[in-house]
Write a structure and sequence with these properties.
Distance between the termini: 67 Å
Largest sheet: 7 strands, mixed
Number of helices: 19
Strand content: 5-15%
CATH superfamily of the largest domain: Type I PLP-dependent aspartate aminotransferase-like (Major domain)
Helix content: 25-40%
Radius of gyration: 26 Å
Strand order of the largest sheet: 4-10-9-8-7-5-6
CATH topology of the largest domain: Aspartate Aminotransferase, domain 2
CATH architecture of the largest domain: 3-Layer(aba) Sandwich
Number of strands: 20
Number of domains: 2
């Protein structure tokens, strides 16, 4: 019988946060998954929530049970299925508004698959033209141009789109504590007080170091100077409360990526924005659903921006899934989440800061989310971030990320890269040596993680810092991509779903994975023993056949498989 509303719309009984977390932990899809590695079977330990979250059975079951049986295009408003689906999508919109305290003066628009789509839509709503329309004349012309202020630790999605507009872009530097320098911000606002439009778009938290911004204090400064306050919560929203209408300092726009929440993969991006800023004459994406009336000769746009700006068939399932995911932290309780995260940060600092060969990026004592970026350095040389990520995967099953975390400008500050050195590296990258891109290893300790799981991850980091260089000859480096592969391990064929209609065959039972303590012991023995001698010979032979050009050789900042003299002995 058709359902009038989803089963989960019934008010859930109040549960203690610990009980709810235990339930959520069991609902994580992939919770008990194992992977095959060069060193045997390993448990999959996911530490890359900063990039994307993990799905939950409760959310996916709700979609299968309460959404898909009555699914239709939301533009089919008169039928049961169209009406039912439309109601759920508007429930999703209102649910998110409630979570972020958006009021009647705020519009909430679903856009794209994350923050990138949201910020690009915001540029259009603010009517900022493309960079090729920027004049290059007098100071008077500059005064009429829009000004965009960005923070010192922006994700590329909150910097590159602004660069490509006709506005001038100024980066506010770090302060001594590693946050946004409010003194420099005030000075910039005063210096450019005659600009026609000033927009400040800052990250609420860094996706590299987890450093948190003073959202309320900074927004007050912006309001005092008549600037538009835009906040990127992509890294912070899964962990921090959002308040669109802070007392005396309401936020003008907020955007974030629900796919980064637990339960959120496959969600739409979200942009919440004050309605008085929606003065664009033409919708961002012109198409079906954006109009109120169309004739052969003229058309009239829909007056409601929440519909006008969602052209075409929207991401219906994506927005409903996102709303359920976004509601989870509030159900658990932000104070409880903050307490658990503080414990994770303290636990990480206690192990990482005293470990040999590890450099924790960012201020050591600043208030931060449990997002950590590390360099693995010793007197033997630096380990390439992708090599470390591969060792974490192969020895421990830990899923982390290597590179610049889509925060290149912040990376230049963290790594003390000069413009000259950066340009030299970029030139070699263009010549095919992508492995020379600077970066770090990033992982996070989610509030669902137990203390034991966090300890396993942290001890894995310290083991690789101490002994990791000894296994470098056992891996092959792809100099173009910077990826590493074990010499003796046959990679599985590329993943596909070609046989999705066939019944799934039962998987052959495998031996039970060793316990975390046993895995740490096995890894320490493997790492301290180092690469077998024939791997040394294979690495030296490969380099002799394809030596590096002199410029790339001079700029190489990490240990390579053939650097045997650097990988012998203890670190």
């Amino acid at each position: 019988m058709p359902a009038s509303r989803p089963a989960n719309s019934q008010k859930a009984p109040c549960r203690e946060p610990e009980q709810l977390i235990d339930t959520l932990r069991q609902q994580v899809i992939g919770q008990h998954t194992t992977i095959q590695t060069p060193f045997g079977e390993r448990p999959l330990v996911y530490c890359d929530h900063t990039a994307s979250g993990q799905s939950l059975t409760s959310i996916e079951n709700a979609i299968a049970r309460d959404v898909l049986p009555h699914y239709a295009n939301t533009h089919s408003e008169a039928s049961h299925t169209g009406r039912h689906t439309g109601q759920l999508r508007e429930w999703a919109r209102q649910t998110i508004k409630n979570v972020i305290n958006a009021g009647p003066d705020d519009a909430l628009i679903f856009c794209g698959s994350g923050a990138t789509g949201a910020v690009n839509m915001l540029l259009h709503l603010l009517d900022l033209k493309s960079a090729d329309t920027k004049p290059s004349g007098s100071l008077d012309e500059a005064a009429t141009r829009a000004l965009v202020l960005i923070g010192p630790y922006e994700h590329h999605s909150n910097e590159l789109p602004w660069r490509e507009t006709a506005a001038d872009v100024i980066r506010i530097p770090l302060d001594a504590a590693g946050g946004i320098n409010q003194g420099a911000l005030t000075e910039a606002l005063q210096q450019h007080r005659h600009r026609s439009l000033v927009v400040a778009s800052f990250s609420a938290a860094s996706n590299v170091t987890g450093i948190q911004s003073d959202v309320h204090g900074i927004t007050q400064i912006l309001k005092q100077h008549g600037a538009i306050a835009v906040w990127d919560y992509a890294a912070g929203a899964p962990y921090l409360p959002i308040n669109m209408n802070l007392e005396a300092a309401p936020l003008d726009a907020v955007f974030f990526s629900p796919h980064k929440f637990i339960g959120g993969p496959g969600s739409s991006g979200v942009l919440a924005v004050k309605r008085h800023l929606l003065n664009n004459a033409v919708p961002t994406q012109v198409g079906g659903g954006t109009v109120r009336y169309v004739t052969p000769d003229w058309h009239e746009w829909h007056p409601e921006p929440e519909h006008r700006e969602e052209g075409g068939t929207p991401g219906i399932i994506e927005s409903i899934r996102g709303a359920m995911a976004i509601s989870i932290p509030r159900k658990v309780g932000y104070e409880f989440i903050a307490k658990r995260e503080k414990q994770h940060v303290q636990q990480a600092r206690a192990l990482l800061q005293k470990a040999r060969g590890l450099e924790l990026l960012g201020p050591a004592d600043a208030e931060r989310l449990p997002i950590f970026s590390l360099r693995f350095r010793s007197n033997k040389g630096e380990l390439h971030y992708s090599f470390v990520v591969r060792l974490l995967n192969d020895l421990f099953g830990i899923q982390a990320r290597g590179g610049c975390s889509c925060a290149g400008p912040y990376g230049h500050t963290l790594l003390n890269l000069t413009p000259e050195h950066s340009e030299a590296l970029a030139a070699e990258v263009r010549r095919g040596f992508g492995c020379l891109r600077p970066g770090w290893v990033r992982f996070n300790l989610h509030w669902l993680s137990t203390e034991e799981e966090a300890d396993y991850v942290l001890r894995a980091m310290t083991l690789i810092a101490r002994w990791g260089s000894r296994l470098v000859p056992s891996y092959i480096l792809d100099t173009k991509t910077g990826l590493w592969q074990h010499r003796d391990f046959q990679e599985a064929p590329p993943a596909s779903l070609d046989n999705f209609m066939l019944p799934k065959l039962p998987e052959a039972s495998s031996a039970k994975c060793p316990s975390p303590a046993e895995l740490l012991d096995i890894a320490e023995q493997t790492l301290s023993s180092g690469a077998p001698h024939h791997h040394d010979l294979q690495a030296a032979d490969a380099h002799q056949k394809t030596p590096w050009p002199s410029k790339a050789e001079a700029l190489c900042w990490f240990l390579r498989p053939h650097d045997r003299t650097k990988t012998s002995g203890s670190q």
